[in-house]
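Practice problem: Beta-xylanase
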Amino acid sequence: MPDRRKFLTRAGYTTLSALLTMGFLQKDKQKEDQTTNEIAANYPNVNSPLRQLAAAKGKRYGAAISSEFLQTEKDYADLIARECSIVTPNGELKWNATEPQPGKFTFESADAIANFCEKHNIEMHGHTLFWHMGRPDWLPYPPTLKMIERHVKGVMGHYRKSKVLKSWDIANEIIADNENEADNATYGLRKGVKRELIRDLFLIAASVDSSKKFYLNDFGIEGATWKSDRFLKMIEYLKNSDVKIDGAGIQSHLWFSTAYGFDEKGFNSVLKRLNDLEVKPIITELDIIIDTPLPDSIKKLDQMVADSYKRYLDLCFAAKVDTVITWGITDRHTWIRHPDWMPGKTFRDNPSLWKFLRPLPFDENLQPKPARNAIAKAFSS
Ligand code: XIL
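Answer key — structure tokens:
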């Protein structure tokens, strides 16, 4: 037994015998047993709601949610309330939902989510003020600085006093998918996007409401990739421009198959770089998509998904990640079952394969899957 443990044991016995002698322990024994039982009863076990397991470790678990299903599906609303301590509106805070006409703001669907969050003590993550998709027809990409200023003042201003909205994806997916689509070799920004425009966007946001956490959010950066290299350079540029940036949203739409694995070393290097830059890594849109060649059963597919969740989250938590948001909570509403977003032509052309699109912790009947237990174990370990 290592010295440290010997020391603690010896110290423990000494204290115990002194208390017995003084008679304190006898008198408080009942109270102590009760307290211990209360702690045991309250301390979450692996079947506890994910928000409870996360909170026990000072972390948050949540999901992207839809105001439509919150209002039409009571079982869905109950599941979110039970499992999530933070939620991201799936589309309700995108430009086409909040400013459908120039200067005309609408917040009904986003406010419905904010009200739900207030009722259930859930945080709301604002997604997103600047994105090449989810735009109303009148809006160019990139928007002019004047359009950006009006939008940020309108939308962030509406939630400045919100008790639940505490963070924003100030900009989303600004790095191009590859160098052919990039305007700038160093930062890899999408065509027409200058790094100074993103700097000014963050500065305008800070002038409207610096009480929230500000994130730069992107996908395809979960490893050593062309994209993650440029994402990190953009983070560094913002930091060096004295811009308020608190976190990096790592979307984490992960694709695995029996054909290829995961770039663990590269992912760890991204997490380390972010921690060195003092920009907190946040897991913002996690789902595990098993691509072709598919395993030969749903049972095996669900286990592959569960194993991938556990392995990914173990790496995240080892790098002090404290917020994990899955992109949806149930396969019933996963975005990748929509033909526009299915992982590749194989799935789009073969509806018989759609049953293999099972990227989330709960199934279409809102029943827990091995993936939920894997997430629970990752939070608990
Ligand atoms: C997706 C939604 O889930 C879909 O319902 C919508 O049709 C398109 O956008 N990265 C993002 C999210 O940042 O906003 C996207 O959400 C998924 C990819």
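Discussion: The chain has one domain: 50-380. Students who identified this feature from the tokens alone can consider the problem solved.
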